[in-house]
Every structure is written in C-alpha cells, then in structure tokens.
Amino acid sequence: MTVTWEELGWERLADGVGRCRLPGWDCTAGLVLGADAALMVDAGSSLDEGARLREGARRLAGRRVTHLALTHPHFDHVFGAAAFTGAEVYGAYGTAGTGALFAPGGQGRQALRADAVAEGLDSRAAREAAEALSPVRHEVRGEQPLDLGGGRRVLLADAGPGHTGHDLAVLVPGSPDVLFCGDLVEESGEPQAGPDAVPSHWPAALDRLLELGGDDALYVPGHGAVVDAAFVRVQRDALAARFGVSR
C-alpha cells in the first residue's frame, strides 16, 4: 500500500525528495528517490534511529536505501549508519581518516562515543553505534554526481571546511532545487563550533552553498526548519562577525 511522506512523519520538499526532523537533537535526515536507487542524507544518532529511518525510506521508496551521504562526522548524523546494510557510503574528502573515525577501534570512534554520552545518548546505545559504525567508502573531493535513475541526478559537493574539517552538501536539482547543508547551516539554534570546527573558513563554506543552490533553492539545515538563501546570507555574515573573518 502506498504511503505518503506525511503519514510517516516526514516532510515532503519536492517530488521524490523529503526529510525527517528527528527528536532529541532536532537533527535532519533526508531522502532522495530515483527510479533505480534511493539516497539517504545522514543516518540519525543511534542504530535504533537509523533502523527507523531505513524502514521509513523502504516504505516510501519500495526498496532499500542504496546510497548514504554523511554530511559530517558527528554522532547525531552518523551513528545510525550501520543500519543501512549494503548502502554505498559517501563523505567529504578526508572523512575516512578523521581520527581513525571509521577504523575499527580507532581513537575517533572513542571520542565520538564519549561526545554522544556527554550529550545525553544512552551509553550502551553509544557503544553499540560506535563499534558498528559503517566505513566511508567514497570520499568526495570537489563534486561528484550520482545518478539515481529515471532522470534523478544529485550532486555531492565537498563544501567545507567550516562546521567541521569535512563538510558535505547534497544538491538535488528540481522544482525547486533542494540543498542539504548539514550543520554548515542551523536554524533551531546558533551554529555550534566545537574543537573540530574551522571558523576562518566557515563563511566561505556558506558562500559555496549559495553558489550551489542559488536564490530559489530550499536550504535544509542540519538542525531546524527549512530556510531560504536570504537566511543563509544572514547566517554567513553573522558567522563572519562572530569569528572575526573579513568579508
């Protein structure tokens, strides 16, 4: 039986494109449907959350998720990745080597687990997700198109550094264009700059997003409501002022 995006608690953004605004950390996961494949953008903050996203995507697409794009290596965006068995996993260039994040037993996994617990994730769920974390098989340097079939093509773009050293954006051309920004853009709170942020490059990363999306795109932040280009410009200028970056 066919279900709608809204029936599953998802927000439809364009034909074959939607997102789920997850509870807890108000984190976004996106879904792009093609005739032959399905792309998930980010995977949630735990294996259970990833499994719920996987099931919702299966019901909407009528098939399993074939591609998974991780916008940046923070637990609330990657800890559900192992739920997407068999998916081709993409990240920005350098993600696979980030503190051995995606290497079994690596220091990066331990740091990610500790951060998740500090932010309130159950310690057992954090351990299980860290141990099962799926490796990034495809690092995007510059831009990489993906053909999902039926005329549906998306563009993966290495848009950072900014929020982290490795920020990936996903552009879905259509009517309207939809740009998944990860945490380079945040709407429900001030953009968070942790120890892995690169503040001096963050405003330039938002310039890159604006080049990709243009004036009429829907910009999907990592946290919060969908915004427009004007919002991104205001946030870019605020970040430049906050971090003392000359424009």
UniProtKB/TrEMBL annotation:
From the record, give the transmembrane residue ranges: none
Q: Which Gene3D superfamilies match?
A: Ribonuclease Z/Hydroxyacylglutathione hydrolase-like
InterPro entries hit by this protein: Metallo-B-lactamas, NDM-1-like, RibonucZ/Hydroxyglut_hydro
Supply the SUPFAM superfamilies for this chain. Metallo-hydrolase/oxidoreductase (SSF56281)
Q: Which residues form the Metallo-beta-lactamase domain?
A: 26-223
Q: What is this protein called?
A: MBL fold metallo-hydrolase
